[in-house]
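BUG: 3D viewer hangs when loading the predicted structure for this chain

Environment: internal workstation, default settings.
Expected: structure renders.
Actual: progress bar stalls at 90%.

Input used:
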Amino acid sequence: MDNVLDKEVFRAGAVQIEGSTIEKISRCLLLVPHPDDEALGCAGLLAELVKQGSEIRIVLTTDGSRSHPNSPSYPPARLAALRKEELIAALNLLGIAASQLICYDATDSAMPAKNEPGFQELTDRLSDDLILFQPDLILVPYELDPHRDHRATWQVLIAALEKVRPAERPKIWEYPIWLYENAAEGDIPDLKAGELLSVETTAYTELKRQCIFAHRSQTTRLIQDDPTGFILTPDMIANFTNGQEYFMQRARLNPSATLSRDYFETLYTGSDDPWSFETSEYELAKYVATVNAIPDGLYYSGLELGCSIGVLTEMLAQKCKELTAMDISEVALQRAKKRLEERPSVRFILGGIPDDFPAGEHDLIIISEVGYYLSKADLLTLRKQVTASLSDDGVLVLVHWTHFVKDYPLTGDQVHECFAETTLYHLEGSRTDDYRLDVYKKRAQGEKI
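Structure tokens produced before the viewer hung:
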């Protein structure tokens, strides 16, 4: 395969990671498809994290058994054992105990990819490990790194993350390995400014070389009876011993900006009901729980932020003398209007929060499944707007999915914890396996509850 990546051009746009950023990393999870990927791609960063006392876990996704497939003296089981020993030796050089290594033992060069047999089992296992460890930084091979095991490892991570409920989103840094040598045109990442990061590792260059060469089966002719066996060439090793390590912090995996109007219009244009609000038993049960959590009484002025196609709106309208329903998608709003055309008490507004937050006072505000679309700064602005627009004794209801979603800047728990820091009185809260519901009341000045 002809490599079409200009390494110098690729690296030229890298932004140096400040030490203060690394200092904030308390728990790092590293996913490696093969023994030696950790030494090549990440040994310098790992050494720095060990130095500052960060917790580190290593997940080895394959058994490394196929680097010398024709060796009589090192059949797959013996080669897998050797390569695991080499990995442990490299980790020991870095100060990482063997107890921090978790091995999934997928077959080298045949790791199950998405929709292949065995993929779900790996996903389930990784999701369990993510729940136990709760990393704030995850290191994983680049999505299109030119090796099937590297790509499958990335796919397993994304699938596993969707099953967990992190209090905060972990950062995801992708590291390149074979991109430097085997990239085809379609493999090269289209990086925006600031998405390629570099870590200064000059102080660890010799240590890193020792870690690389601890993998003797990959760097020497230790295994002599397979002329087709793999070996790391000096040129390949030189990609990783130049005093810098490179990581991609792509916005696609690390969103921080509020989702755009186009994001939602694309969803609603492609599907009448992209989240199955009309047909899902889960959604119906959640809506019933949401309405039941609203304290009894008739509300004079309700406000629903993010009404979508109006399924919950229809239920809320029965609780309100007047209800304002707002959504950023014109397509969704038209469907909501059609659904509630027999209810003149419902007023619709096209707009996004927080920029288009409607003026006026409300005694009921519903924020259901929209807060995590916002950046942290925009969520803080929304919090001010909501608390200011609630009337005395007004009620705020928050409902959000708590699983990881790749596209969303915040988690559901982050949204709810943000509002927990206000002066609003917490009336009740509940949590299921999938969502969190909290109800607040605004106290009249001087009122005691």
